[in-house]
Amino acid sequence: MSMMTNPSVTTRIERWPVAGAFTIARNSQTEVELIVAEVSDGTHVGRGEATPIYYEGETAELCAEAIAMRAKARTPLTRESLLDTMMEGAARNALDCALWELEAKQAGKPVWQLAGLPQPAPAATAFTISLAEPATMEAAAKAASGRHAMLKIKLDADRIEERVAAVRRGAPDARLIVDANESWDDLDIGAEARALAALGVEMIEQPVSAGEEDLLLGLGAPIPFCADESCHTHEDLDRCEGRFQAVNIKLDKAGGLTEALLLAEKARMRGMAVMVGCMLSTSLGIAPAALLAPRAKWIDLDGPLLLARDRPGGFALKDGLLVPPAAPFWG
C-alpha cells in the first residue's frame, strides 16, 4: 500500500465479558481485554482488533503504547513495513488488520479479494470445552453436540483419559481435538496419544512447553501434534518440523494477517497441516482469521461464541456452521 502521508492512528481498550468462565491449564477468565486500532486517511477508516497474549507478558496498555510509538515513527506506515519495524504479537496484529481494511476500502474491494483468497464461506468451527470436573465437561459436551460437529477439549496433566472419555460420552458423534496448553512435559506423551486415539481424538495441540519440542521426537504417535505456543511466525518452523505435524496459526501470535498468510504458505511447503485458531475475541478479531479457513484442516474460531455478547452484525452460528458477516470489506 502506498500513501503520500501516513494515516492517522487511534487506539482504544475494550473489555468484554465471557459467557461463564473460560478455563485452561494456565488460568480461568471471566472477561477478555482487547485492543482496537483504527487507521484513517481522512476519508476511509480501517479497523483491527487484537487480544494481548498474556503468557508472553502482553497487556492492552503495552499494546496501545507500541501502536502509538509506531504511528509516530517517520517510516511509512504500511503492512509491509510492519514486518520490519514491529515485533510479532497483538499490537502488530491490530495495526496490520486495520491497514488491510483501510487498503480494501481505498481499493473498493473486500480484503479476501485484495489478498487473492477465496470468498469467506460458512465453515464448521471447533467449540471449546473448558477444563473442569469430568461430569461438568460431559454436560458441556452434551449441550454443544447438537450445534457443533467438532469439540476442542482443554486439558492439563490430570485425569486426561477420564476427562476425554466424559466428553466422548456427552458427544458420541463429535470430532474431538484436545489442547494441553504445554502441560505434558513430565508425562509419557506417546502413551497418552495412543490412549486418546482410542477415544477418537484426531489431534493433540501443544502437549509440551515451548522450548521443549525435542520431547516429541521419535514418539511415533498415532495422531498428529499441532504447535501453538511453539510457533508464532514462519521463523519458528525450523524448531517445529519433525516434532509437530501441524501448526496453529493465530493472528495475535503471528502479528497480523500479512505474516499469517506467509506462515500458512511456509508450513504447506514443509508438508505441515494448518489449523487456524484464535484467542477470546469479538467478530472483528475473527474476520481476518476466517480468511485462512480454506487453507486449514482444523478451524477453531469460536472466540465470539464464548463471549456473553458480540459486536452487532458479527458471525452467526447456523446449522453448526460459523457464517461470516455480510460486511462489505471483511465479509
Explain how this protein is built:
The radius of gyration is 19 Å and the shape is globular. The chain has 331 residues and is of the alpha/beta class. It has eleven helices and 13 strands.
Write the layout of secondary structure elements.
Blueprint lengths: L7 E16 L4 E13 L4 E6 L9 H13 L6 H7 L4 H18 L3 H4 L11 E4 L4 H12 L4 E5 L5 H11 L4 E5 L9 H10 L2 E5 L19 E3 L9 H4 L5 E4 L1 H4 L2 H13 L3 E4 L6 H8 L7 E2 L16 E3 L2 E3 L8
Parallel strand pairs: 4-5, 5-6, 6-7, 7-8, 8-9, 9-10, 10-11
Antiparallel strand pairs: 1-2, 2-3, 12-13
Helix pairs in contact: 1-3, 5-6
User: How far from one another are the termini?
Assistant: 20 Å
Uncertain spans: none
Rg from Cα: 19 Å
Order of helices and strands: EEEHHHHEHEHEHEEHEHHEHEEE
Q: Within the largest sheet, what's the order of strands?
A: 4-5-6-7-8-9-10-11
Structural class: alpha/beta
How many E-type strands? 13
Q: Averaging pLDDT over every residue, what do you get?
A: 95
| Main beta-sheet strand count, sense and barrel state | 8 strands, parallel
Which of globular, elongated, flat, extended, rod-shaped describes the shape? globular
Q: Supply the number of helical segments.
A: 11
The helical percent reads: 25-40%
Portion in strands: 15-25%
